[in-house]
Amino acid sequence: MQAITEAEDTPTATTDITTQSISLWSGPVAGGVLLIAFLAFPGFYPPMSPADSAEKVASFYADNQALIQFSMITLNLCGILLAPYFMVIVVQMKRMATQSHVFAYCYLTAAVSGATIVALADIFFLVAAFRPERDPELVLLLNDLAWITLIAPVGMLVAQNLLLGLAIYFDDGPEPVFPRWVGHLSVVTALAMAPAVGAAVFASGPLAWNGAISFWLRNIAFIGFVVVMFPVLRAALRRQAAAESVA
Fold first, then answer.
1. Is the peptide bond before 46 cis (omega within 30 degrees of 0)?
2. pLDDT digits over 219-233, tens only?
3. Angle between the 65-78 and 54-63 helix axes, to the nearest 10 degrees?
4. What is the Cα–Cα distance from 232 to 243, expressed in whole angstroms?
5. 190 CB-near residues (< 8 Å, 6+ apart)
6. What pTM, to 2 d.p., does this model score?
7. For 129-170, what is each residue's pLDDT tens digit?
8. How far are the Cα atoms of 23, 40, 110 from residue 103, in angstroms, in the given order?
9. Hey, where are the domains in the chain?
10. Which residues of 78-109 are buried (b: 16+ CB within 10 A; e: fewer)?
11. How far lies 40's CA from each of 45, 68, 241, in Å?
């Protein structure tokens, strides 16, 4: 009886491939929506400076309240659409034959932690825009909270990529799930994003939250990795479908 119940709870190969494909394609959809949210926020291009005065910051939120709220509400509603994309990576990591599932579960935890941090930054931006007429020093405080929370906590992103890289290096079977170069890319991406932690310390220079390293290198590395992983994951799904004889 228990064996029958377990068999009923296990998805068929066709269902597994289909749900992974749907989750994978949620990535480009979410990316397009988040690009709109990014472009709608005038404080991202160029990114606001930590050196801005309280009066300048308060004026920014007062003058751009509607755009800030639209951008952050869009991020709030649609940012989570990236979660299914990363879960495809988790599922594929679990298919790796020569390592335990520990890397996959740790990757899952790191991805969820990252989504939580972004949600907190989103809320701080929205609170700053909620009453832009308040004391400029309080608006400045909320702005600092928003930017530092958005840029500096990169530990989970670094962990995600290092865990994926390690999983790929351990997957030395005859038919690895991911090519070995993806492991190298994951490690390089982790190293590129790690210095952004300096955004919590530096108010100017490349390590400040608007700097070339903390803002631009960090975000370009992350976006580049997500984009490159799309064809990699599609290829992995095709190999899984062929191995399981799924049309």
1. yes
2. 999 999 999 999 999
3. 80
4. 17
5. 157, 158, 159, 160, 161, 162, 165
6. 0.86
7. 999 899 999 999 999 999 999 999 999 999 999 999 999 999
8. 20, 37, 10
9. 14-243
10. bbebbbbbbbbbbbbbbebeebeeebbebbbe
11. 10, 7, 40
